[in-house]
Design brief:
By secondary structure, the protein is mainly α. It has one domain (16-83, 96-172): Ferritin. Helices cover 69% and strands 0% of the residues. It has 4 helices and no strands. It has helices spanning 16-45, 53-79, 106-131, 136-172. Helix 2 packs antiparallel against helix 4 and helix 3 runs antiparallel to helix 4. It starts with 15 loop residues before the first helix and ends with a helix.
Amino acid sequence: MPLLATIRGILAPEMTEQREEILERLTKAYWMEIETVMSYIAASTNPDGVRAREVAASLGTEVQEELTHAKRFAQRIKELHGTVPGSMDFQPDQGGMQPPASPTDITHVIRGVIDAETAAINHYQAIIELTDGIDPVTQDMVTDILADEEGHRRRFEGYLREYTEQEDQTNRR
């Protein structure tokens, strides 16, 4: 009996169509994480001012975590018999993460992070739904990464509340 006839699950020949759809979503997730790494490096380097230090430091530490996510997505793409794309396939999507006109506009950076994390969360939830019952390995991996992204977004929502409250108090004076 040929080896392929004994394969079950997402790698089985009859699961090719579902596997291809999962690979497309994983590839998008990979690019989202790679773009986030680039954006967070810029956002952790460009800001000026005392108020920006904590946010920039937080982004600087999150770069490694986002890179780890990208590596996990790349490994899963390979495991599912896909090809991890090269740089020529990259198309940016994080307009909100572009550096602000002023290096002291830290709320622009914070809002951009929240937008990027929200997009990742929504995309990862869609992958979890897609893989339900057909690819538990991918589903578990994405669920784990989703928890990280939700934590990132929550932290930056806290920063935004703090900064907007401070701006409101300053404007009232």
